[in-house]
Write a structure and sequence with these properties.
426 residues; alpha+beta; Restriction Endonuclease; 3 domains; seven-stranded mixed β-sheet
Length: 426
């Protein structure tokens, strides 16, 4: 299978699996065919974090895909040194040097009353003002981008932030240090007068600022129907695509596994989803008739399930060993009256036979490490892109299953078999 084939499945219009891509450093903004609106709304409604998760996903996707990053990198620095301005006059006390147009009558009265000293004058002076509607749009937009990035940073922490978001945040801070721009008030609301002035301006930077400000304001509306419309329109086609082929294959295996659990295993649609962020929990929860199935992505069983591993004990028992607990790509946790089972799924994007064999041994290590805790029965499944299948039905039930991503039926048998208590399914 190719990257295009994995991407096509991930971006199927029938599900919202594309939005289980990790919200972190290694992705790029991407656009694909729209997701069915009912499927997308069902996914968003079932997010564990409810509205806060929807807002997080919407903010990151919009910031990366919406054109804001390009604006703060190019048009914004250009327009700061060419801000629109107007000349305003005002009366003030000047001196001892005389400037402006002196008001002798006011000066004499001021000196007689003691308000103005003999060395000062009341004068009408001219000042340059930048407090124009089109500049207030800029101020609103730059402050909005900065606030949105800060909100994302608060949720997923700086170390996990996409570099371009941190760059945008720095650019916004630098803009407010500009002599002219920094003195502008930061409007709390975007008004029609402001956007009309910017949209009709001769400079393209103002017109682009108006477009982006209006786009962002749609995601901040208090009208719930309008907000949902904006969110669904945004997330139907825009998503965060993993840059690295290995990461994309892992996402493909995650989305395919969830689909297999729904259809082949017969669990139906997940009753809950979770975004792939730092300090996350499960990415999916299935509730069967007599079982509860949780799916975790790229997390350690030691931390998520509280399992004390032999590997961890070994590292802690020695000086000079510094290693984190191992992270299987997927964990399927099955709880039923028959007991508790842990199925570890490892995805390896390789066609090299030797590397596949080494990966089988790695999965053996996972199974051995976690099955000795006595908490779970543990099974392992290795998924590669293509070219591996059971030799025959008589091959029986191997200790570790190896399946190909392009053989859905084979993967379905492997996962269903690994989840079964007692005799495996063939």
């Amino acid at each position: 299978m190719s990257r295009e084939a994995w991407r096509d499945f991930i971006c199927s219009s029938e599900h919202a699996g594309r939005h289980l891509s990790g919200i972190g450093r290694s992705f790029a903004g991407s656009v694909s065919d729209p997701i069915d609106q009912a499927a997308l709304r069902a996914f968003l409604d079932r997010l564990h974090g409810a509205t806060s998760d929807v807002r997080l996903l919407g903010d990151v996707v919009d910031l990366i895909n919406g054109g804001y990053l390009q604006f703060v990198a190019g048009p914004l620095p250009r327009i700061l040194d060419a801000l629109s301005s107007e000349r305003l006059s005002r009366e003030e006390i000047v001196g001892p040097g005389l400037r402006g147009n002196p008001r002798w009558d006011r000066t004499i009265i001021g000196r007689l009353s003691g308000v103005v000293s003999p060395a000062h004058f009341v004068s009408r002076t001219s000042h340059r003002s930048f407090e124009l509607p089109e500049n207030l749009v800029l101020a609103w937009l730059v402050n909005d981008i900065r606030d949105r990035v800060a909100s994302v940073e608060k949720r997923i922490k700086t170390a996990s932030m996409h570099p371009s978001l941190l760059t945008a945040e720095a650019a916004c801070n630098a803009a407010f240090d500009h002599d002219w721009f920094g003195g502008l008030p930061k409007p709390s609301n975007l008004t029609s007068d402001m956007t009309s002035a910017a949209r009709g301006h001769r400079r393209p930077e103002y017109r682009e600022a108006a477009r982006l400000a209006l786009r962002s304001s749609e995601l901040k509306t208090n009208d719930q129907d309008a907000w949902w419309y904006a969110i669904l329109s945004l997330l139907a086609v825009n998503w965060l695509e993993p840059v690295d082929d290995d990461d994309l294959f892992e996402l493909f295996v995650l989305v395919l596994t969830l689909d297999v659990l729904s259809v082949e295993v017969g669990l139906g649609e997940p009753v809950e989803y979770g975004l792939v962020t730092t300090r996350r929990g499960r990415v999916a929860l299935f509730q069967g008739e007599d079982s509860r199935v949780e799916v975790y992505f790229d997390q350690t069983p030691a931390s998520v399930l509280g399992i004390r591993t032999a590997y961890g004990d070994t590292v802690r028992a020695h000086i000079g060993l510094a290693a984190a607990e191992r992270r299987p790509d997927l964990m399927i946790v099955v709880e039923s009256d028959a007991g508790r089972k842990l199925v570890l799924v490892e995805a390896k994007k390789t066609s090299d036979g030797r590397y596949m064999s080494d990966s089988v041994y790695k999965v053996f290590g996972y199974v051995h490490d976690f099955q000795n805790t006595g908490t779970f029965q543990t099974e392992g499944v290795l998924v590669v892109p293509t070219g591996v299948a059971l030799a025959s039905v008589s091959s029986g039930n191997p200790p570790i299953y190896v399946a190909s991503g392009d053989d859905r039926s084979g993967l379905g048998v492997a996962i269903k078999s690994a989840m079964q208590f007692g005799k495996k399914v063939t």
